[in-house]
């Protein structure tokens, strides 16, 4: 058995061309928190938007103003 150097771009798999998987996408998902008209995780109802829509984060990690219990004097 001979020895040699094999590089990844020269393997048979590197030349292999797979067809992309076809996935059926729904136009509307009644269980999606972000779809138009559905209730969000935080309880607000989405408007019936038809284009790009910007959501406010239901579970933001940062608060707009810290609560008094978190304030510290340094």
Q: Which residues form runs of ≥5 with pLDDT under 50?
A: none
Distance between the termini: 72 Å
Mean model confidence by pLDDT: 79
Overall number of strands: 0
Q: Biggest β-sheet, characterized?
A: none
Helix content: under 10%
How large is the count of helical segments?
A: 1
Topology readout:
Elements: H1 12-15
Features:
little secondary structure; 74 residues; flat
Provide structural commentary.
The protein has one helix spanning 12-15. It is built from 1 helix and no strands. The mean pLDDT is 79. The N and C termini lie far apart (72 Å). It has 74 residues and is low in regular secondary structure. 5% of the residues lie in helices and 0% in strands.
């Amino acid at each position: 058995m001979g020895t040699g150097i094999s590089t990844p771009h020269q393997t048979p798999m590197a030349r292999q061309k797979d067809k992309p998987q076809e996935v059926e996408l729904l136009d509307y998902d009644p269980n999606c928190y972000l779809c138009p008209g559905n209730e969000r995780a935080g309880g607000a109802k989405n408007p019936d938007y038809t284009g790009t829509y910007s959501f406010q984060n239901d579970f933001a990690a940062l608060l707009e103003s810290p609560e008094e219990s978190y304030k510290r004097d340094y």
